[in-house]
Amino acid sequence: MNLNDCYNFSDFRKLAKKKLPAPIFHYIDGGSDDEETLKRNTDSFSKFDLVPNILASVGEPDLSTKVLGTKIDMPLFLSPVAMQRLFHHDGDKASARAAEKFGTFYSMSTMATSSIEEIANKAGGPKMFQIYIHKTQGLTENLIDRCKSSGFNAMCLTVDTIVAGNRERDHKWGFTTPPRLTLKSLMSFAMHPMWTMNYLTHEKFQLPNVSNFVKKSSSIAKGVMEYINEQYDPAMNWKDAEYCIKRWGGPFALKGVMSVEDAKRAVDIGASAIILSNHGGRQLDGSRSPFDQLPLIADEVGGKIEIILDGGIRRGTHVLKALSLGATACSFGKGFLFALGAGGQRGVESILQKMHDEIKRDMILMGCKSIKELNKSKVTLR
Amino acid sequence: MNLKDCHNFNDFRTLAKKKLPSPIFHYIDGAADDEVTYKRNTLAFNDVDLVPNVLRGVENVDLSTTIFGKKLDLPFYCSPTALQRLFHYQGERAVGKAAQKFNTMFGVSSLATVSVEEISSLVNTPKLFQFYYHKDKGLNNAIVERVKAAKFDVMALTVDTITGGNRERDLRTGFTSPPKLTLSSLFSFATKPMWGINYVTRGKFELPHLQDHIKEGTSTATSIGNYFSTMLDQSMSWKDAENLCAKWGGHFALKGIMSVEDAKRAVDIGCSGIMVSNHGGRQLDGARSPFDQLAEIVDAVGDKIDVICEGGIQRGTHILKALSLGAKACAGGRLYLYALAAAGQAGVERALGQYRSELERDMKLMGCTKISELNRNNLKFRNV
Taking CA atoms, what residue in B is nearest to A381? Predict the structure, then answer.
């Protein structure tokens, strides 16, 4: 099996599973607890059916949309994901360049394995920075100011990671960053020699955005859950979010908003967007899926703030359903990560191409000429 | 396993799988993307239950119904499907003769492998021609004239194939028409020698309605998805449909209507019927199922035009449920295609016979003797 045999999300996942050492594959693939929310994120799209219009002489539909002050060529972009260098030795460079090719957002995690400055130099497309508020004084300001001077287009603050979710697969596989070798994981690394070779022979693993502030960011093997619980500030509140918005001064999103009440507050503090997300089912298991919650949120704050739907997107039709119910755009993490693991930049380009083609085909079959034509009348609740 | 062991839809499917090279089986069996809509098309029938009436004196059941001004002995017919000679060497000849035996309608595809003239000379029951609106207007006109001359009763314009659906099974098996041999498909063809022998010895494969106009009509291997995307006119509009309807001048239907709004417009442009269909789940995955959508459409236009429910039908009770909601008739492709692949004309006859006896039995058990007695009082929707 290789990239040419990958036609959809499941194929890329399968190929990534072959290519990646098990602890790393399961870090991407897993959710928290029983992974109920992880499953529901995708399953929830079946609740609504599309109702197409025919004879609409669609021709070439326009897939572009404007989100966070930037026009993007397709209504789907890459969510911020930590430590991409673990999934492929080109890491963030690969995903940023692939996103640039498709004229859509690449998002950088605070925990990225490339620096803000390096990516700004290497990829010219729209870029969003995802910020975590650390306990360490000065780090937040440092990150915001560096993004400003590097010309990032937007910023989002993750608000659903106050403590780490219970990711049991990581316990089981001893997933740490950088990878620590246990007997079981050693076996798996040994059986994926290409990954291991690439990991060892390319640049050193580090988290350059935080390395000057947090010594544990590079050399000490540390579980992600442990890092979150030690470094992130659990006292983070609405005031802190407002502070970040002011300091940044540009398009700003809160990532991980789920309740209607919080969505309204996001409007009040001047956020430009909310990213409706449960962190890909990796934090609070049993929490509602973004798509299930979307109609409630859109009814309350639609038109006042942009709504980005993040979670469970595997198909072009999922994007169409979300946009019909009031989302401005969608984003996905696992959706492109398996492709990154499977084939680096080429892999990410391949999944973006497929999603682009699916969205375009589905728009034509729906009889829609542009994203603006998608509205509630295009879907029916089953 | 042989034809005598086939008692329902799934049995025919199992036998077809044994007989057909896998690219061809999966072409019939597959649908778009994750095949969610394909599955839903049949599962939708389970959301509503039948409520029988008893002591009604039901020894004689009349299953006949009238659509497009034609009386059929059965309230279901064979939808037009492409490339039938790939499934069995008798192809359209088998399906047409079987339909005639049961005095029901026979749908013929633009991508049929037997010409309308020949079908017309073989089959004298009502015939429907399925029309694809090509970019080549000369081709469109020529087909209309031929179909008129062959005295077909109904023309149905397919409106849900503006672009090819994402049929991933075809991508994996390398399904093209005529079949192109890859290493893995070669293996599959080699292990089904009977199919191969019949395919090679029973007359050259061709698409007689298209072959004078486009090279895809004959020997160039092309995938169906690619054909839709490159040959059909993506700018097809309501005006085009209206013009075609007028040019045809007879009973005209739109196949692939799903929204209420579009159903009303079909009435306005002079259609005498519509097929509520999502192309068997083969085009837009995530689209609503015809049965789920049926009531809304019947409420809007059921008194003005014939509403035909097409998609997911595998049982007599499915037909009963659709007719109770207000459909005038049902139609299906896979419901006879597996049987065609399994045993040609004898297979299709056996399948149609089974649906007829199921329907007859179900009518009796419901306490109904005529199709016109079916209505929504027979049904109870489950709270899902």
Answer: B288
